[in-house]
Structures are given as C-alpha cells and as structure tokens.
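Quick one - inputs below.
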Amino acid sequence: MAQPRTSSHSGDAGTARIGSGARVRGRIHGEGDLVVEGQVEGDLAIRGELTVAQGASVTSEAIEARSVVIAGALEGDVAATGTVRLVAGSRVRGNLRGSSVAIDDGARFSGRLDCEFDLPPELGGASSRGEVRGRTAARR
Amino acid sequence: MASTVIGAGITVEGEITTDEDVVVAGTVRGKLTAKESVTIEHGATVEADIAGASLIVAGSLTGNVTASERVDLQSGARVIGNVKAARVTIADGAQFKGNVDMDI
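Output:
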C-alpha cells in the first residue's frame, strides 16, 4: 500500500538501514524501523519493524521489535508484539514469539514457536484463548 | 544514496564497519569505520573514533577522526577530538576543540 512521504531525505527520522557492505557488532536500540542488509552481531531492541533482507545475517541473543520480517539468516530469540514472518529462502534458528507467526513455504526454521491464538470452539470450548508451544524443525 | 543509515531514533552501541557510506542521524557509541564517506547529520550524537575516506559533521561528535581524503565541519557542528586528514575545513559557526593534523 502506498504511504504518503513524510520526509525528504535519506536519514529521515526513525528509519535505519545497515547496508549490504556493513557489519555492526554491538547493541542497536531505539524508535523506528530497521532494515538489515548486512551483518549484525548483537542484541536488537526497536519499536518499529525489523526487516532482515535476503543475504543479510543477524546473530543475537535477543531481538525485540513490533514486527519482524526475515528473508535472510537469523540466529537468536525473537520477541515481537505484532507479527513475525519467515519469508521463503530465510534460515532461522531460535525461538519465535509474536501475536502471530507466519512461515512461508521454502523458509527453514529450527526452534520453538510461542504465539497466542484463538482456539476453534470445538477444541477450546468457551474460553477460546490459548497458547501454543511446539517445536518445529524443518530441514531440507 | 547512503548504504547505511542510522535513523534519528536509533542508537548503536558497538562497532560499525562498512565498505560503503554511512549517514548517522541518531546516536552511535563505539567505533565507526567506513571505506567511503561518513556523514553526521544535524541532531546526531556520535561518541566514537571514526575512520573513513571523508567525513562531514553537522551534529555532535566526540572522538578522534582519521580521514584519507577530507573532513568538513559544518556550521552547527560540535566536535571534541583530534582530526587527521589531508584537507580540513571548519565552517563559521562550527565548534571545535582538539588538534588538527594535516600531515605536512
């Protein structure tokens, strides 16, 4: 969906990008979105959306963001208040927590999924709020 | 277009190394090494030693700088540290405390 442009230059407020030739070792935190095209080793805590682009690699103990889209390689535990999506071609090792988690066909994932969801009435009865803790190991 | 951008709300504590350009509008603490230009925008805070081809500062910088080409401190810049580069400009309105080494 098209969004109105609110800023006129590249360093606009709250947007960060780690370019494909860049490597960051350390902690990244703050407000706004972050796109990783290069390499990050260290913890990430941002208020916006984290995108790990194809070809990027993130190695971290803890990753916190509003939502997370992974198309590259990621190792570490992910906690999102919103959605976590593993795009085809991604390689993820770690535990994922989010309000919803999507794993596309062709994504490789090893770890635990932790997300809240509504059980169908025939399974959950009246109180239809549930939590799943399962282990998924997909390998090619 | 800059390859690596640290946005205004973002803080990086650690080491940034890149073959490309870096634009800092947020906060960087640690070390910053780029093969090309480094830009510290107005409002940005950098507490780091910087190495790069060229450096443009309009924000606040504490740290030592080594540039293979040039360093430009623009109006509004606040720099504490030593600057080593073949070409250095300090604009009217820039604040600077430190040594300049033009390698002569």
